[in-house]
Every structure is written in C-alpha cells, then in structure tokens.
C-alpha cells in the first residue's frame, strides 16, 4: 500500500513538471510516444493512431493578418503573425524586420503570446506576435513577403529541425478624413492641447532675455505627428536663440500618447516694443469627427529706451570744481570756528556733568574703587544737590564713612568689602531721601537755593581720618 502511494505521488509530480515545461510551446496531444513507452504500455500489435500519422505529415504554418484594410493617418493598425508547428518549438522564431517609409512600427507589451489549434484533426502549437503600425502619411502601404526562420521538434525523433518559411505579404491604405483634408499638416488624434510658459519679465531692458516654452500634448497617436510649434521671429529689437525640440512618448494599455516641447530664448537688442505671436494649430478629433483648434495667446513685450548719451566731460569738470571750492570754504570755516565750537562743546559737556545724576555716578564709582579720598571729594560735590537734607539724614552715611575709615587704616579683622558695601547702600538710601524731600518742597514751591549755607554735619563734625600707625 505504501509503495503504491509513493508511485502515485511520483507520477503526479512528473506530470506537473511536463505541463510547466510546455506552457509557452506545448507538445501537441497527438505527439507520438517514445518506442520504450509503447513497448511497456501497449501490445506490439496495437496500430498507430491516425492523428499521429497526420501530424507527421503537417508542415509548419506561418500566417499574417491585418486588423483593417483601411486606416486613418496616425491611427494604429494591428498586424498579427501566427506560427504553428505539429510538435513544439524549443526556441522562439526569428521574425523579419518590418520597415517601410512613413510607417512607424511598435511592439506593445506582451507582443508575443502562445497559442494552439486543431487542424485536420491534428493539434498544433505555436505563437502569435502582434505589431502596431502607425502610418505617418496618406497612401498605400504594402508589407512584402519575407522569410521567417523557426526551429521545431521532429514528430518522430524529437530532434530540432530549423527551417525558413515565407511570410505572406499584406497591404493596407491610410487616408485622411474628408473634414481634415484642408489641415496642413494633418494632425489627427483623440486629444490635442497647447500650453506655454513665459520665463522672465515682459518689461525688459537692452541686454535682458526672456524665454518662451511651448508644449503640445497629443493623445491616441505618436507625438512624431506634432508639427513645429514656435516660429523664431527676428526683429531689430529681438534676437531669437531656439533650442532643439524635445519629443517624448508614452504608452498606457496599448494607447500611444506623447508631448513635444520647444524652447526659444529672446535677447533684447534695442528699445521699442515687440510681440511673441499667437500660436494656433488645427487638429481633427477622431472621437467627435470634427476639426478643433488649440492655441496659446500672444505675449506683448515692452523694451527699455536706448541707453543715455555719453557723459559731457566739460560739465563733469565744472561740477567737480564747484565741489572742491565748497570743500575749501568748509575747511576754512572749521579752521576759524573750530575753537569756538570746541568751547561750546566743552560747555555742553560741563553742563551735562553738573547734574545730580552725574555727580552721584562719580560717588558710586569712587565707592566701587574703594578710594576713600575720592569718595569724600565726590560726596562734597554731590552735597550741593542735597540742600534739602538735614543733620539727621546724614547719620547713617556718617557712620558708614567712619566704619570704612576704620577698616582701611586699622588692623581690624573686619573685611573692608562689607563696610564699603554698607556705604554704597546708605548712599543709595540718602539719594532717595533727598529726592523725596525735593519733590515735596517743589510741590510747596519752597525750595532752598543750591549751595546754601546749610551745615552738612558729615563734614563739620567728622574729622579727616588719619592713618593709624601699625
């Protein structure tokens, strides 16, 4: 039982492999079996099947067929070449080249497909190759008889046989529809559009450039049929520099389309006005069977006036002389008025320095530098702006100064920095008291005069600190 199951599985795998090998070029079902197989499966007296005998007598077949006899210019027509053999082809046929004037030949995707037929009771296998032919002009086209080379297996021995077979001739006619007879050139398509792109400003000066890019798209046929788009104009104001046209084609589901793009750069030579002309192309719509018009607008350009005349060197020299005289007079003025201007500047600076804010800044700087003598001098100057203060207001400041002097000229272990910091805080507080009292008296319009004979207790009652001998 187990042995029988293994044999069945082996035969099944062998059959599957044989079917996969013969997918593209299948072996006909009536192919004669090998002698060994006949001896094992059939008695010696069994006669040969008539179909096998007929297949042995069938030669390879090559047939050609056109999808239409008449076609519109630019529209595709299909040419099919069918190759059939009585057994199978171990390698694909070698097809001839199809070349005719005004005829574009394309092979679509999956142009070659396998096929099989029964003829005269025998099974034949082979391939079908499909070409798409695009006539580019009206007229009759004749594809001459050509030789096709193929290799197939001998029905008796399976040995490869190489032979050449004549491919039948075919002919068709390309015409232009009556509605499109007046089109020159005849643009016949399922769709056609025009677009333009202006690169640059339309207000130009001499030496400036502007670029015009015009693109045409065609559907249902080859872009080779798109005529030239831009006519390069030559005027005294503009010079044209065209580039080579760019043609690109695409194919989607067997439908051919494409674009043609033309670029022209215009260089301004002189002033004035110019216009890039309108572009119109008439085309025949195969879907509506009417003549349509695709167009892009004209572009008007404004060119700058001619450059100014050369300079008048006499006027330039005269103006330069005036400038030199003016500079000389200004220098003489500065020389004579310089001292006065300097004195006025010094007076302004002195006035700016003779303010409470400036003198208070001097006091703060002396405190930061920890210079006791400079601090006393700055406080004396600042006291002229503190006439509203009385003796009680100076008590904290007096104590801070005594502490600073003691730390500076004695062997006290106290750090001098702390006494200087306290002095700075007391000075800031004293300024606030001075400002508040000043504003209060100003409101009452009872301000004392500056530099009055008020006694400043810090200077009257505090002796100058003397260094302590160590």
UniProtKB/TrEMBL annotation:
Source organism of this protein record: Falsiruegeria litorea R37
Keywords noted in UniProt: Signal
Region (Disordered): 25-51
Signal peptide: 1-20
Name of the featured protein: Oxygen tolerance
Keyword Transport among UniProt keywords: no
